[in-house]
Amino acid sequence: EDQVTQSPEALRLQEGESSSLNCSYTVSGLRGLFWYRQDPGKGPEFLFTLYSAGEEKEKERLKATLTKKESFLHITAPKPEDSATYLCAVQAATVGGGSEKLVFGKGTKLTVNP
Amino acid sequence: NAGVMQNPRHLVRRRGQEARLRCSPMKGHSHVYWYRQLPEEGLKFMVYLQKENIIDESGMPKERFSAEFPKEGPSILRIQQVVRGDSAAYFCASSPTGGRGSPLHFGNGTRLTVT
Fold first, then answer.
1. I need a surface site. Which of A79, A104, B88, B94 has the fewest CB within 10 A?
2. What's the pLDDT tens digit per position in A17-48?
3. SS3 for A39?
């Protein structure tokens, strides 16, 4: 069964204090690894897709990396507006094609204090 | 999250009533997914539909839950005879192709409360 584990569950940072969030996964044939941001009362907002080990993607203060077993979301010099829950999800290959569903982790709740 | 429209945003039902949740995907998207989110838990897949077809309903409870995505109109998630355990946030997502790496675009959800 495909599984996604995110750590830590919660993280408090001071503004400007860089850190990383971890996403470990087990999947039978990775088709893509996704990072989302979710604000309270809202739906997840797409950030990145990574396809293969060694790949990196950047957007403003965020950088996502991928290995064969885990992904990291690095946050450089965070600001209070980066406070949110960050979700990791995997899309697995399926026999005969078909469902392209994403399997999500429980998320890391990030709080950035001014 | 602009583009995927879900309504209502909040829905209160008494035990035994029916709940109908609606989702209009982004323009040009023909693939719809429904997820459920409980407090302190991750998003759990329920069902994946294309126009007039259910592709994968492996996450949907066998009893009381059904989903459809008709040729015309929004996708509907229907919960019959609701129980307190059905209280959750239900999210709809859409994608244009459903292919490899195709990200899902989510709506802002319907929060169902069963009293």
1. A79
2. 999 999 999 988 888 999 999 999 999 999 99
3. coil
Chain B, 77 to 106: residues with Cβ < 8 Å from chain A are 91, 93, 95, 98-106
Q: Which of B58, B91, B100 sits opposite A32 (nearest CB)?
A: B100
Taking alpha carbons only, the member of A91, A43, A44, A34 closest to residue A64 is: A34
Q: Which chain B residues in 4-33 lie under 8 Å from chain A, judged by CB atoms?
A: 4, 31, 33
pLDDT, tens digit (0-9, with 9 covering 90-100), for A68-98: 999 999 999 999 999 999 999 999 876 655 5
How does DSSP assign B40-77, residue by residue?
Answer: TS-EEEEEEEETTEEEE-TTS-SSSEEEE--SSS-EEE
Q: Please indicate if any CB of chain A lies within 8 Å of the CB of B55.
A: yes
Dmax over Cα atoms in chain B, in whole Å? Answer: 41
Q: A60, A87, A88: which is closest to A75 by C-alpha? A: A60
Q: Around Cβ A60, how many Cβ atoms within 10 Å?
A: 10
Nearest chain A residue to B54 by CA distance is: A99
- Residue type present at position B63: E
Distance from CA of B84 to the nearest CA of A (A): 20
